[in-house]
Amino acid sequence: QHLPVDEYNEPGGHAGSFGWFASGLVDVAALTGNPKYAAAVDRLWQNLVDTKMCITGGVGANGGIEGFGPPHYVHRGGYNETCAASGQVFYNYRLFLLTKDAKYFDVMEIVLLNGLLTGVGLEGNTFFYINPMEVNGEWGFNMQHQKGRFPWWKVVCCPGSISRTVPQVPGYMYAHEGDNLYVTLYAATETEATLTSGKVKVKQETKYPFEGKIALTIDPVKDGQQFALRLRIPTWAREKRFLPGKLYSFKEAPPPWSLQVNGKVVTPRMEKGFAVLDRTWKAGDKVQLDLPMPVQFSTAFNRVVAYNGRVAVTRGPLVFCAEEIDNGMQIQRLAAPQLPKPDQVKVTSIKEGLLKGMPLISFPGVERLEHEVLGNREFRVYLAQPLKPYEGKTRPATIRLVPYFSWNNRGEKSMTVWLPHKVEAGKKGVPLEWIAAKAEKAPISLVGNVTAIAIHNKSGQP
């Protein structure tokens, strides 16, 4: 960043460095109480989720600088460095502490479970530097042109980011202030918090993020203790979008969530994304939160050129992807020209192997029999393009998807997050302009980078 704080309007430069810089800026805002710092970090965050974040929470699509391009420049090829995901975890966590707003944890959870976890193999000893949305099984996208994760690399920032972020997750589960106890992440955990009114023990029992039922047992130090239990209700469970921001929208609104206290349905008030239960508590009180997890299909804002005509599949807080190993063909041959009806979508559990116990989503689609095979250079160009009309022969096929964080653990074959759906009327596969609204300006933070300057010039803006 090269501007005074008062002039910060959007992220720029190296995406990993931005996350750490922004985290520090939030700390300065908290320590000084200076409103200009708080206003700056809020503007930067809003611009990030509105124009620059992948559906996995990954940021930094411009591989030339491992950083940000102009607004809406996010594409299926990445770059989404693992370090940048780590920075987003720290940034959003601090924003929550500053504001007590659940929207920051909503983003942080998506980053943790998708954009960050994919950076490490399930056995914990191999790593991604780059986290693309689509590969063809031939393109060596990772360091040293590898098609999979590497065990070690002379630039060890990403393994280091994993090892310093994951151990902090237990500290992100709960927060408290005065007589307010926040449940910010859901997992089978227990803790003891010291509130103004006294100590409280909380125990969670759940299979989240694979299932949406969360059972909590509340044990205050004394019966009749009054405090507010605040349960985060994620964006994906209460709005028609997967995460905060203007980039992605569900095709269907989510079903209603529900809350019970000692077996009785309650309707809590909502404050900043939290369901608030402010009452007197006794030992053994039970709270049951039910967050339904239907399979959802998302489309992207039409200025995000690379996602035009495609859909992404999510369930709960997890992004899913189609891998060649589960589908028996190069994944670029598959398409979903008609979205399935709810009764056509199946969610089962993987029975064996490294992914045992994880959900497997399946639904009907088609195989494109005349799919064009591209060389690696052409494939990388294709990753930044909208869907083009496909009018050749097709035949029925079943599309199977697994959690994105688990991909590339069973072979280095093709994968995609964004499935071909249908070309929007009037688009005909023609790329949209980089910036459609002339009132918007390409970020001046791009100045000084050759790749970024080329993109800036294509936008036709001063």
UniProtKB/TrEMBL annotation:
<dbReference type="InterPro" id="IPR049049">
    <property type="entry name" value="Beta-AFase-like_GH127_C"/>
</dbReference>
<dbReference type="Pfam" id="PF07944">
    <property type="entry name" value="Beta-AFase-like_GH127_cat"/>
</dbReference>
<dbReference type="Pfam" id="PF20737">
    <property type="entry name" value="Glyco_hydro127C"/>
</dbReference>
<dbReference type="InterPro" id="IPR012878">
    <property type="entry name" value="Beta-AFase-like_GH127_cat"/>
</dbReference>
<feature type="domain" description="Non-reducing end beta-L-arabinofuranosidase-like GH127 catalytic">
    <location>
        <begin position="2"/>
        <end position="170"/>
    </location>
</feature>
<dbReference type="InterPro" id="IPR049174">
    <property type="entry name" value="Beta-AFase-like"/>
</dbReference>
<dbReference type="InterPro" id="IPR049046">
    <property type="entry name" value="Beta-AFase-like_GH127_middle"/>
</dbReference>
<dbReference type="GO" id="GO:0005975">
    <property type="term" value="P:carbohydrate metabolic process"/>
</dbReference>
<dbReference type="Pfam" id="PF20736">
    <property type="entry name" value="Glyco_hydro127M"/>
</dbReference>
<protein>
    <submittedName>
        <fullName>Uncharacterized protein</fullName>
    </submittedName>
</protein>
<dbReference type="InterPro" id="IPR008928">
    <property type="entry name" value="6-hairpin_glycosidase_sf"/>
</dbReference>
<feature type="domain" description="Non-reducing end beta-L-arabinofuranosidase-like GH127 C-terminal">
    <location>
        <begin position="295"/>
        <end position="420"/>
    </location>
</feature>
<feature type="domain" description="Non-reducing end beta-L-arabinofuranosidase-like GH127 middle">
    <location>
        <begin position="181"/>
        <end position="293"/>
    </location>
</feature>
